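ok, trying the design again with the full structure, not the truncated one.
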């Protein structure tokens, strides 16, 4: 089974910090998993970013995951990809990238989660938990109950897929989320827009670690 971090930090297009600056701060805060999510640049600009970010991640021993852009596989030191298209064919994607690359997917229903596991995804981002400005969408908000139901359904079917809550998560949500039995959480806006980026990342990390259900 591949290494999947319990606190996943996601970069975002924001005015006050570049993706590279976000990654530098996250790594300084102790981040072990960066998801580079940039949907605003062409391939040349993406690769410039990714190569610089990969160097930072390598220096800190941090896993680098890229949102979508699977065609860039092999062009930089990328450990995996997160696919946001909930209808993506993971069987085909796995053949494309090979077994060593980590593949994660987005899901909003337990049916999505079950399909991701059957098609060989290594983990799933399940959300949105709450309203989020980072990734506006019309999907049903899951709330605590949505994660409780998903964990139970997966357990009933003996499905062992690391599921991470994502979407509008604040520090005060972490304990209740982790106690549903999910694997971890993925965070972007709550850290990016915090008064103290590094302190907030570390607060999230401590809360995830302390609240992990064995």
């Amino acid at each position: 089974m591949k290494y999947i971090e319990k606190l996943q930090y996601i970069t975002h297009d924001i005015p006050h910090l570049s993706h590279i600056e976000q990654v530098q701060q996250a790594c300084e805060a102790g981040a072990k998993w960066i998801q580079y999510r940039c949907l605003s640049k062409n391939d040349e600009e993406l690769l410039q970013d990714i190569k610089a970010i990969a160097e930072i991640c390598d220096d800190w021993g941090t896993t680098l995951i890229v949102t979508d852009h699977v065609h860039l596989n092999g062009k930089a030191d990328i450990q995996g990809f997160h696919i946001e298209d909930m209808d993506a064919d993971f069987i085909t994607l796995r053949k494309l990238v090979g077994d060593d690359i980590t593949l994660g997917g987005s899901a909003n229903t337990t049916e999505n989660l079950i399909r991701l596991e059957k098609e060989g995804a290594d983990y799933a981002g399940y959300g949105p938990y709450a309203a989020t400005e980072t990734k506006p969408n019309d999907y049903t908000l899951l709330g605590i109950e949505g994660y409780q139901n998903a964990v139970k359904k997966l357990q009933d079917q003996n499905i062992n897929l690391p599921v991470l809550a994502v979407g509008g998560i604040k520090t005060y949500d972490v304990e209740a989320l982790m106690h549903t039995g999910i694997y971890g959480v993925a965070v972007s806006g709550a850290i990016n827009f915090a008064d103290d980026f590094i302190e907030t990342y570390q607060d999230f990390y401590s809360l995830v670690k302390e609240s992990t259900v064995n």
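Keeping the full-length input from now on. The first helix runs from residue 19 to 29.
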